[in-house]
Amino acid sequence: MAELTLQQRATALLSRFYGYNKFRPHQLEIITAAMEGRDTVVLMPTGGGKSICYQLPAMLSEGVVIVVSPLIALMRDQVTALRANGIPAASVNSMQTEEENQSIMRELFSGRIRLLYISPERLLMEIDRWSRDMKIALIAVDEAHCISQWGHDFRPHYTQLSRIKQVFPSVPVMALTATADRLTREDIARQLCLVNPAVFISSFDRPNISLRVATDTGRRDRLRRISQLIDRYHRDSGIVYCISRKVAENMDKALRELGYRSAVYHAGLSADERNAAQEKFINGDVQVVCATVAFGMGIDKSNIRWVVHNNLPGNLESYYQEIGRAGRDGAPAEALLFYSYADVATRQSFVDDSGQQALNTEKLARMKEFAESRLCRRRILLSYFNETVDHDCGNCDICLNPPERFDGTTFALMAMSGAIRTGQTIGITTLVNLLRGSAMMELRQRGFDRLPTFGVGRDTSFAEWTAYISQMIQLGIFDIAYNENNHLKVTPYGMRILKERTGVTLARYVPLDRRPTRSRKGAAPAEEEPLKPAERLLADLKEVRLRLARKEGVPPYVVFTDKALLEMVRLEPTSMEDFSRIEGVGERKTVKYWKPFVTAIRRHKGITEKLGAGLSCDETLLLLNAGYDVAAIAAAKEIKDTTVYNHLVQLIRDDKLTDFSTIITREQYARVAQVAREHPDTLFEILAPEMHSGLVRVALAITDFLLRRKANK
Ligand code: ADP
Ligand code: ZN
User: Which residues pair with 306 in a beta bridge?
Assistant: First the structure.
């Protein structure tokens, strides 16, 4: 047989182990570069498919692959997922005992483990002890931005990873990250001492995620908008990211009071409590998790339909990574950010304590610009990641609702004189209340109700006023004094407008559609309308998946992702063979899981004929390729050995089986050939005590096959 190219082998492995038919953009090039011994830098958005880039070389090469990763939870998830696909992987980390870790290292050296996940601390501890001629195919450094001071998640241990190249100069290193601007990218290559690395940058665009920003929304309004999201996707789930533990807890409580199934997740909870929350989320027992940023790392839950930022993130990298957890299956998803000046102040105080004040202030400023912008948000976001975009996206609030402009000079003049008359000692909320002539106590106490500007803007709603003043801030008419309780200060530019009465153009405020909310305390979850057939099948398959996952003690997505289940719903496979063709179903999972899923699908389709009848040769071939012997195939398919042998004979006759080493030994074959030559008529009788008659027939079929091949030559 001709040698397979690297590309062919990689594609075959992708299909065998992962059940995927083709590589995503860059994956094959990255794998090829690594296999050729080149250092690589891989930039791909979350969900882009980075893991396969370093996992496949473990199977393509004789050497092992070492993966450096800072996140223990993520390591464990990946190891579980790899094993579910039949790939021997393990991790060495501080959650395991020293004995466990040592035994894993021994297995690695003996070649029984193909992929090892290890924390940077641990790697640095071990690397000098490792034999320099240990066969390592590749060392992958995941979350590589952690190495850079410029990044948003700097980890000091990462800076020492330059040891890798010192100790193993000829082993290729692959640095992977989902977040890196140009500065960070160059820093990664330099700090890891990569030699002339091949750099692969995937598009960071996630066009299926719609982007929305809601400015200065009050608590009631926020709850209403979140309720709408939960209702809209009441069978799926979402995340509300909050700035602090307390905010997360309050949000969780409020949502539960509205009758939603919610859980809370933050670093202040015990490990058990956190695991329980994560479990509920993954299993779909809750519709929403109210979390601090600690949540979501490494969750490969593909049906997160929406992500809300209850508070402004500190930088665009974090924002993008967090919204990226939605819609990993490619179906439409929503990202909604609530923006308020109070959050800017809080974030600024975090920045001041961060030890990298200048850099982080700059990053916060970019985040703020994004939130305040009246331009296509995706363009701003992608240009931040150094990607050029020449068109508006059509899937953000600005594109969907282009602001109508109008002459807002009167509004600007009213607002500025209002602020000035208070001696510029008030923030936005008080100013709006003043302009609207509110009966607020504070206004009366401070004598503001006697000012000529009191109530001049009463015809304009609170929300509308707030929006206009925000715009005035963006336009540079007002400045917010973060160091003075966020009071509004009229800028020199504002003063000039005030004096010269020059025109100010504002974007017309568009009120939110006021859909009714469910405000009754303890209201039942949304009325469940009857399911469509496809939804019913999906629900059935999810049941099956959950049952299997519980039995094995793994998260449901380790059994199958939602995307794979959706494919099953679409294609309704009713045989093992068809099942194996589903994207995301590799050989190992076919053999292990086809029966319960196919049974559910057949029941759904009203097929009553018993499963197992009429199973084809191809199914036998599939099992054989997956490493099953005759007895195991017979057991898996619940058929007789004889039937399996019949299939084998047929497969050999059809030239579908050309490697016989797994079904018959050299000695067995030689023995049959000898007896066949000497006693052709009593062949089966003579061999009966030694081997299954089926095996004899297989041997004879092989002889025919060899003769046929000779004749063709
Ligand atoms: P990342 O590490 O970049 O966030 P993952 O490696 O976890 O992303 O991949 C995200 C999802 O995409 C996973 O479910 C993965 O199995 C799937 N995936 C990766 N490569 C392919 C491919 N070539 N075809 C189909 N699905 C893929
Ligand atoms: Zn847009």
Answer: 238, 334
CA distances from 599 to 546, 610, 678 (A): 15, 9, 49
For 201, residues 6+ apart whose C-beta sits below 8 A from its C-beta are: 43
561 in contact with ligand 1, CB cutoff 6 A: yes
pLDDT per position as a tens digit, 122-176: 999 888 888 777 889 999 999 898 887 666 677 788 889 999 999 999 999 999 9
CA dist., res. 634 & res. 624, Å (int): 11
Identity of the residue numbered 190: R
Task: Give alpha helix (H) positions in 204-356.
Answer: 219-232, 245-257, 271-283, 316-323, 341-352
Rounded Cα gap, residues 199 and 19, in angstroms: 27
Tell me how far the alpha carbon of residue 344 lies from the centroid of ligand 2, in angstroms.
23
Q: Which residues pair with 290 in a beta bridge?
A: 240, 264
Among 602, 580, 598, which residue's Cα sits nearest to residue 590? 580
CA 175/CA 672 separation, integer angstroms: 55
DSSP strand pairing (115-118 vs 136-141): unpaired
Phi-psi region of 11 (alpha: psi -120 to 50; beta: other; left: phi over 0): alpha
In this structure, are residues 175 and 144 in contact, taking their beta carbons and an 8 Å threshold?
Answer: yes
Tens of pLDDT, residue by residue over 470-492, are 878 867 788 877 667 778 999 88
Contact present, 528 and 235 (Cβ < 8 Å): no
Distances (CA, A) of 591 to 397, 594, 625, 628: 47, 6, 11, 9
List the structure tokens of 11: 């594609």
Ligand 1 neighbour 50 (Cβ under 6 A): yes
- With a cut of 50, which residues of the chain have pLDDT below it? 1, 513-528, 613-614
In this structure, are strands 288-291 and 237-241 parallel, antiparallel, or unpaired? parallel
Ligand nearest to the CA of 392: 2
Closest ligand to 391 CA?
A: 2
Distance CA 453, CA 448 (A): 9
- pTM for the predicted model, two decimal places: 0.65
Pair of tokens at residue 94:
């501080």
CA distance 628 to 591: 9
Give the separation between CA 406 and CA 393, rounded to whole angstroms.
Answer: 24
| Tokens 């240009």, residue located | 383
